[in-house]
Structures are given as C-alpha cells and as structure tokens.
Amino acid sequence: MSLHTTRKLKIHQPENFEFDSIPDSHSWGNLHDHPSVEPIGPDAIPVIDLNDPKLIEKIGKACEEWGVFIIRNHGIEPEVLNRLCSQMHRLFALPAEVKLKVAKAEGNDVGYGGTPVSHFFPKFSWFEGFAIVGSPVDHAQKLWPDDYSSFCEVIEEYNKAINSLGCRLIHAMLLSLGVSEEALHQTPLGDSSKIKTAMHLNSYPACTNPDRVLGLPPHTDSACVAIVYQNGVSGLQVLRCKDDIAPTRWVRVPAVPDTFVVNIGDLMHVLSNGRFHNVLHRVTISKTNRLSSACFFGPQADEKVGPHSKLAGLEESPLYRPVTWPGLQKIRSMLHDKALQAIKIDSN
Ligand SMILES: C=C1C[C@]23C[C@H]1CC[C@H]2[C@@]12CCC[C@@](C)(C(=O)O1)[C@H]2[C@@H]3C(=O)O
Ligand SMILES: O=C(O)CCC(=O)C(=O)O
Ligand SMILES: [Fe+2]
C-alpha cells in the first residue's frame, strides 16, 4: 500500500514501519497537557443501573455534571457482544490491501479509514476504523466474497439492540429535562424509527511505546448521544475541568465488564440549552490491542435540533440556533471545536 493512501486516511498501518520505533508522524509531544487520573473518589465516573427506580433523576444529574456515565443492566445479552467482537477481530485482521477495497471515499463517512477530526491535528492517530450507516452488505461482499453474511447478521443484531437502548436513553434524558411523555413523541427524537444511527468499529493496535502515541485526539461527538462498548481494555479518557477538587485532568473511563459508556454529544448540549455537558474525550493506547464500538444517535438528516421549548421558554432564552446533524458536522469540518460558538445566539 502506498504511503500516500495511509497519509490521506490518516490511519495507523503497522506494516509501514517497525513496530518498536514510533515515526515522527505518529509521535505526539503534548499528551501531558493535563495530568491523567484514576476514576476514584470525586473523580469516579457515575455508574447507573438502568433498573434503578430513580433512573431519570440520576441520568439528568450525570448528564449535567459529567456528560459521561457507565450503564449496567442494559439488557443486551453478552453473546451479542461476543459475536460483535469476533467479527471486529475478523475485520481488522484482514490484510491492509483488502481493507482498503472499502476505504472511505472523499466526503463519505462510511467504510474503512480514519476520522474527520484527525485532520485538525498535526499527528496521526494509532487507530483504524470502519464506519457503518444502514446495511454493511456492499462492503462486506468486497471484504469476504465467499462469506459476508455472518458479518451482516451480527451487525444487524447489534444495531437492533443498540438502537432500542439509544432510544431509551434519549427518552430518559428528555424526561429528566422536564419534557412530558406526550411532548417527547413530537420531538425529532421521539421514537426509534426517527432516530438515525451511525456505527463505528474501532481498532487501536498495541504499542510498545504507548506514552507517545494517541488513539483518537481530543474531541466531542457531534451526535446527541454515543454509546461506547469497550472490550475489557480501557483507553478512553474524559476531560474534567478545573473545579474545587483539582485542576483540569483527564479521567480514565474504566472498562467494566457487561457495561457501556454513554457520552453526551454537541446536539444534546444544544437541545438541553446548554445544561448537558458535551464531554471532551480522547483515546490513549496501551501495550494491549484494543477494540471498541461507538454508536452515534441523532435526528434524521433533515431534522433541525434547537433548544427544547420546555427549557428555552419565557424565562430562559435559547442559547443556540437550530441545526441539522449534517449541518453541524459541516460547521465542525470548517471550525473544529469552535462550531458551537458559531451557532450561539448571543455571539452574533
Ligand atoms: C456520524 C458521524 C459521527 C462522526 C462523523 C460521522 C462519522 C465519523 C464519526 C466520528 C468518530 C470519531 C470522532 C468523530 C468526532 C470523528 O471525527 O468521526 C466522530 C464524528 C462526529 O461526532 O461528528
Ligand atoms: O474507543 C473509544 O473508547 C471511544 C471512541 C470514540 O470516542 C469515538 O468513536 O468517537
Ligand atoms: Fe468520541
């Protein structure tokens, strides 16, 4: 594979260099801008049991104070996740030239490659990804001409399960904001058929010198909500801003068996009129290979999301102008982390 291709995709390709030596292109100099801390004491990331009688209240608090939380008792069978993991292994173990048959085309978000956010950073990510929206059948046929159906079946099974979980979480968040059950069904996120899902399968190869490389650079997700499954190996860190307890720090998100991590994205911050925290996060690398999946949930492409009228009414004025999900992604592709400022009402 040409270096040009990997450079364009901005992904890690181990066969391009010796595993032990980190090329300058992948060596980050500023990874310790803030200290990395363990999730203990006041930095313990909230863990929420979805069967908790106080679920709505707890979710609202976690979204406001953290923008990230861990969920247990989510109802997705471990076998579904095991099947997903074996297909992820199978996918990333393919030779680079096979994976490149389904490389993301310019301006297209599906297929194999890097992430849009990496283009704002001078260094490469220690990462390769595969993005799925809708059915992956066309890509799977190119990857495994003789046996593509098992991949598609597993993805479909996971998609169904994660979709209803995403829908449940979004509902709980809206209820916690004071939106009534009735009003909820009129929002662009009201039922699972209205919610759009994008699935990202991520692979972070092991590295003998993990302190100098980065899996994914710091970013917020543009979606309303992201549900991340980390397969037993941690790596995800969330930024906790300076408070009474400590200066700004990166808090490790533990990989607790049988749980998912839920992140609040930009659109939920907008919808909640700034109440919910769109958490900045990044992925670090370790000496162990790591696989994760991130599912992003948002409205259909033509639906605008603005501060909910329940929140931005007579007493509180709306902080943001409504945007569609693709509209926000476009602004982010130009303005990176200044995108929300650009749709802020008082700044214009
Ligand atoms: C549906 C999505 C969500 C995307 C864009 C598109 C496909 C790729 C997703 C991610 C995944 C990695 C972080 C992020 C910030 C990135 O660069 O690519 C995400 C981005 C977003 O949250 O906007
Ligand atoms: O791999 C992870 O834990 C998180 C991935 C992530 O943040 C993303 O795909 O947006
Ligand atoms: Fe993310």
From TrEMBL:
Its cofactor is L-ascorbate. The keyword Mitochondrion does not apply. The keyword Metal-binding applies. Residues 194-299 form the Fe2OG dioxygenase domain. PROSITE patterns: FE2OG_OXY. Transmembrane segments: none annotated. It holds the Pfam family DIOX_N. GO terms for molecular function: metal ion binding; oxidoreductase activity. Keywords: Iron, Metal-binding, Oxidoreductase. PANTHER family: 2-OXOGLUTARATE (2OG) AND FE(II)-DEPENDENT OXYGENASE SUPERFAMILY PROTEIN-RELATED. Belongs to the iron/ascorbate-dependent oxidoreductase family. This is Fe2OG dioxygenase domain-containing protein. It comes from Rhynchospora tenuis.
